[in-house]
Design brief:
The complex is a heterotrimer of chains A (543), B (143) and C (98).
Chain A lengths: L5 H22 L5 H9 L3 E3 L4 E5 L5 E3 H14 L3 E4 L5 E6 L4 H9 L17 E2 L14 H11 L14 E4 L13 E8 L2 E8 L12 E7 L3 H15 L10 H8 L1 H15 L8 H8 L20 H10 E3 L5 E6 L10 E3 H14 L3 E4 L5 E7 L3 H10 L14 E2 L14 H10 L3 H7 L4 E4 L13 E8 L2 E8 L11 E2 L6 H18 L6 H8 L2 H8 L1
Helix pairs in contact in A: 1-2, 1-4, 3-11, 6-8, 7-8, 13-15, 15-16, 15-17
Chain B lengths: L3 E2 L11 E2 H6 L5 E4 L17 E6 L6 H11 L5 E6 L6 H6 L4 E4 L5 H10 L14 H6 L4
Parallel strand pairs in B: 2-3, 3-4, 4-5, 5-6
Antiparallel strand pairs in B: 1-6
Chain C lengths: L1 E6 L6 E4 L4 E2 L12 H10 L4 E11 L2 E4 L2 H8 L16 H5 L1
Antiparallel strand pairs in C: 1-2, 1-4, 2-3, 4-5
Classes of the chains: A alpha+beta (543), B alpha/beta (143), C alpha+beta (98).
């Protein structure tokens, strides 16, 4: 894990005082809400339906037990005893008082956390693969690259008033667990001639105009990495549209001028920027990377796991995935109990997960973009004990990547932008498919729900996607099939007219019946959809 | 209208002309860039410029930050003025992008500004100012 | 009827204009007629409210019922967490929203 040095501490501490000053000026009437809004947003503070909402950054989804306990503490002391883990690997609190926000940031700073750039038209928290440093299939740990970007992008003087928000994801495996190509910039660390560099994809995103990012550069070596990012952002800052906020994301620029023209512009800018000496030296990368070395794994551990408890065996098969180190495993903790709120965890549950990380996972946790938590480094011999503790805390659901492992935005229950509620739909679908045997029979099925066109619930990337809309004051839900945020990235296609809340649950069930009837050996829902097309599904749903 | 200057030389009193007017006449020494103007059009003429005024029509319009850096990166040493909807919390960022004078439309609280400019002892990235990024402090000069 | 709502500047709580101040309870909201914008401007200027806006509502025996579901959710609280709403003990409170 990255540890702050004196410089990092100093910068974050200054930020706390800066925000305290900004809040005081707002409360004293020295600045208007219009002027304060971009300032508070750049610190992750929104005004939502019921209160202020504070989004705390979890850089590249990694945190330690002390940090996790701080998140629980903040939930207890300043909020209503829970937090909501988001699709960008952050956590947000729904009931924050403006006057408390500076104190919360001060408390976060004591554990090397912050809310810097978790909103606003700036470079947001860098996201990454939740299995980074543990995955059997990764080329290298992507987090040192992500940390380098975190530092480069923090209070970047040129890129704090971009046309629109800017999201970057970094991965280092061919299996994409971070929806990399649905980001403004997606980076995959690749190897060439024995050197690691990045493949750069620019212009992906969801929202009202979903796009898959095209490849802009197949290899940028480390020595040019920051300069190249600077060039990518400068072209966007100069030429991204500012006349229409719905067309202001970089995906629109890249789409309108074309990937080739965008690449030319970036290359021309890079030729200038490269002369400036803004690329950190290799020694800085090495300094950061040294903090992400493997924990002290024990050698020679057995890979045997006692499966005699059948409930444990079910959980094991669903939630535990391969680790690069023999004798260890990666544990996924579901925050998707049947009928629960996707991504929510109580302060007590957050504490339990912190304790487990400290005791069994080398003090590390991860937040996933699917709104679950990961214990990245657990000895196989400890899995049973971990499962027992999780079960007591009601955290032992065995539904990873199944139909009830739903991504859902907060929707109209919390969000001032939403047009319809998302969470009740998620709850009804999960309840309809509550039987685990039935879910497992359906296999991998990624269902994602957004409460408005901004697509925070990633509905475009759902094998099944649901979009809530407002139809003359009544909630209505549009259904789509065939999306994916993984390495088989694709955008979902809408089925047809929308449904009521109950109607969309029925329609989902009918679609799964089509899949069960039509699938061939080994096909997932999305594979069957891709093979047979929309027609049989439409017939079942609307016929 | 308050004007804030961080330069030792005398203020330039020639009115700034538009970019088109500047490119069409050889003797102007002050130019005003609208946020949609390409700052690079000025690069062949930097040695005869004493003042470049960059317009910030709305505080959300951040194109001028790039314009400032582009001019400084190309070696422009004259006055670089940010004019328009320039807010006190933005001035430290603009300073880092090379701006050394400010003509905000609304008055700026100078005490707040002084505190803002002094707040950060360190910066993470190189820009158009003299501040050393922390990676340089950590490791010394590259190479 | 037209009623005026916003959030408390410091706490963020949802508030409703009562004719001489702000209440957390929509039942206390009064018809502002054509005065809504003027009251909003004055109250925002005095920093007693953040982001005030006028909405349509229906007068009912139980008090004003906002026309749009978004404001009914604001008035009550999240439908998925009845325990966190203003009426945690009322099991039928959620049906008022829908």
């Amino acid at each position: 894990m990255y540890k702050y040095d004196e410089y990092d501490h100093s910068i974050v501490a200054a930020r706390v005082e800066e925000f305290r000053d900004q809040v005081n000026r707002r409360l004293a009437g020295q600045i208007t809400e219009d002027q304060f809004k971009p300032l508070r947003l750049m610190n992750g503070l929104y005004l939502q339906l019921h209160a202020y909402m504070l989004r705390v950054a979890v850089p590249y989804g990694t945190l330690n037990a002390t940090q996790m306990r701080m998140l629980a503490h903040i939930a207890r002391k300043y909020d209503r005893d829970y937090g909501h883990f988001t699709t960008r690997q952050n956590i947000q609190y729904n009931w924050i008082k403006l006057e408390d926000a500076p104190d919360i940031l001060a408390e976060l700073a004591t554990v090397e956390m912050h809310a810097i750039q978790t909103s606003g038209n700036c470079i947001r928290n860098i996201s990454s693969d939740q299995y980074a440093g543990a995955a059997a299939d990764e080329l290298t740990d992507p987090r040192p690259w992500a940390e380098l970007l975190r530092q480069w992008s923090t209070f970047h003087p040129e890129f704090s008033y971009l046309p629109r928000k800017f999201k970057i994801a970094v991965i280092a495996a061919d299996e994409d667990r971070a929806a990399m190509r649905l980001h403004d910039i997606g980076l995959q660390i690749v190897e060439r001639d024995g050197q690691h560099g990045v493949a750069v994809y620019v212009g992906g995103g969801m929202g009202r105009t979903p796009m898959i990012a095209p490849l802009i550069k197949d290899f940028v070596p480390f020595d040019d990495f920051v300069s190249y990012m600077e060039a990518c952002l400068r072209v966007y800052n100069r030429y991204g549209r500012r006349d229409n906020m719905y067309k202001a994301r970089i995906k629109i620029l890249v789409h309108e001028i074309g990937a080739d023209k965008y690449r030319q512009e970036v290359e021309a800018e890079f030729a200038q920027v490269k002369k400036l000496g803004i690329d950190p030296p290799r020694a800085e990368f090495d300094r950061i990377a040294a903090q992400f070395v493997d924990p002290a794994f024990e050698a020679g551990l057995s890979d045997e796991i006692d499966r005699s408890d059948p409930d444990f065996a079910v959980w094991l098969d669903q939630q535990v995935v391969a680790h690069k180190q023999p004798g260890y495993a990666i544990v996924n903790i579901s925050l998707k109990p049947i009928g629960g709120i996707p991504g929510d965890a109580s302060s007590a549950q957050i504490d339990v997960m912190a304790d487990l990380a400290e005791r069994y996972s080398f003090d590390e946790l991860r937040v996933t973009h699917a709104q679950n938590i990961v214990l990245p480094h657990v000895r196989k011999a400890d899995l049973y004990a971990v499962w027992q503790t999780l079960r007591e805390a009601e955290l032992a659901d065995a539904n990873l990547d199944l139909i009830s492992d739903i991504i859902a935005c907060p929707g109209l229950d919390y969000c001032s932008l939403a047009n319809a509620r998302s969470i009740p739909v998620a709850q009804k679908i999960a309840t309809r498919f509550a039987d685990l045997g039935r879910q497992r029979e359906l296999g991998e099925l990624k269902l994602k729900i957004s409460g408005c066109i901004n697509a925070c619930g990633h509905h475009h990337a759902g094998h099944i996607g649901i979009l809530g809309v407002d139809r003359k004051g009544v909630e209505n839900y549009q259904l789509s099939f065939g999306g994916s945020g993984a390495e088989d990235v694709s955008l979902a296609q809408i089925t047809g007219p929308g449904f009521s809340e109950d109607g969309v649950v029925d329609a989902v069930e009918k679609a799964t019946n089509v899949y069960l009837a039509q699938r061939t050996q080994g096909e997932r829902f999305v594979d069957t959809y891709r093979r047979i097309g929309m027609a049989p599904f439409k017939e079942a749903i609307y016929g | 209208m308050a004007e804030l200057r961080y330069r030792d030389d005398a203020a330039h009193d020639e009115p700034a002309v538009t970019l088109d007017a500047f490119l069409g006449q050889s003797n102007a020494t002050a130019v005003r860039l609208e946020s949609s103007d390409d700052a690079r059009a000025l690069l062949p003429h930097l040695d005869r410029l004493s003042l470049v005024e960059v317009s910030f029509p709305k505080f959300r319009d951040g194109r001028g930050y790039s314009a400032g850096r582009i001019l400084r990166e190309a070696g422009y040493t004259g006055e670089l003025r940010a004019q328009g909807d320039v807010l006190v919390d933005q001035i430290p960022l603009m300073r880092r992008c090379g701006f050394d004078s400010f003509a905000p439309e609304a008055p700026v609280d100078e005490a707040v500004l002084a505190a803002s400019l002094a707040r950060y002892d360190h910066v993470y990235q190189g820009a158009a100012d003299a501040a050393e990024p922390v990676w340089k402090k950590r490791h010394g000069q590259r190479g | 009827m037209k009623i005026l709502t916003g959030n408390d500047l410091a706490s963020g709580d949802v508030t409703w204009w009562t004719g001489n101040g702000w209440s957390r309870h929509v039942e206390d909201a009064v018809d502002v007629g054509e005065q809504g914008e003027a009251i909003a401007q004055a109250e925002e200027g005095a920093r007693r409210v953040n982001g005030p806006y006028v909405i349509d509502a229906t007068a009912t025996p139980d008090g004003p019922r906002p026309a749009h579901i978004k404001d009914r959710i604001r008035a009550l609280g999240p439908t998925v967490r009845p325990d966190l709403t203003l009426k945690p003990a009322d099991p039928s409170a959620g049906s008022w929203v829908i």
